[in-house]
Amino acid sequence: MTGTVDHINGVTFHSRKGTVKNAFRYSIDYVLLDADAPISCPRLFARNGRGLAALNDIDHGGLPKNGQGSAWVRKVLAAHDVTGVARIEILAQPKMLGHVFNPVSFWLCRREIDDELIAVVAEVSNTFGERHSYLLHHPDLHPILATDRLKSTKHMHVSPFQPVEGGYEFRFDISNDRIGVWIDYSQGEGGLIATLTGTRAPLTNRTVLNMLLRRPFGSRRVLSLIHWQALKLWWKKARFRSCPKAPANEISRG
Predict the structure, then answer these.
(1) What would the pLDDT profile of 53-73 be if each residue is shown by its tens digit?
(2) How far apart are CA 109 and CA 150, in angstroms?
(3) Chain segment 157-198, per-residue pLDDT in tens
(4) Kind of pairing, strands 251-253 and 131-136?
(5) Does 132 fall in a domain?
(6) Is residue 252 part of a domain?
(7) In this structure, is residue 29 part of a structural domain?
(8) Does residue 251 lie in a domain region?
(9) Beta-bridge partner residues of 11
(10) Is 22 within 8 Å of 233 (Cβ atoms)?
(11) Where in the sequence is the domain holding 198, given as residue range(s)?
């Protein structure tokens, strides 16, 4: 069966907790597609190839620039006894004009009997070239509802203005016309709230061209915004932390 590609016309919001306040909101583009199925896509988008916009397995699923796509996800699921997954989708920012950087992307794992979401792998990358993923599911693998909150201990350094200690709380609301992801990171009285919300519609050539017109630098723009927010936090005298050694394991279970 041939799959399709959906475009997420998204907005991401970040709000810092604690004594040093900082918040921002900006628009962003994501794509959502079946990670295993052959894809019917517009000419300006490439799946495992070159295009104005693209999504390539080498960029996702495992270590940066050495990704294995959904094959890696299935190895992770098997190693952690997560059974019953028939279909895996990926929600990620596409590569634009040959460049990609995803602070976080998501593998959505659905079961065969009813296509319900039963597990998520949140793939977190930092600007230091490191990646760590978090496997999220209920102990009995019942469906993940929009009201559910899935917890995981934080293991990787993401921002020099936040510690590694603490934990995440994830919430997912994925429907046919919208997506919503909420991440609440807490550590003592500090932490961060990050959200991704947006409308979902089939990706077209016009969509790709609009993405280039509205946000022509793609993930380069995202990196620039990350560094701009870091500069603002430095100016506000937020505590700076050096990057510690990356975790030995590439994935942890919530």
Answers:
(1) 999 999 999 888 899 999 999
(2) 15
(3) 888 778 889 999 999 999 999 999 999 999 887 899 999 999
(4) parallel
(5) yes
(6) no
(7) yes
(8) no
(9) 27, 197
(10) yes
(11) 3-242
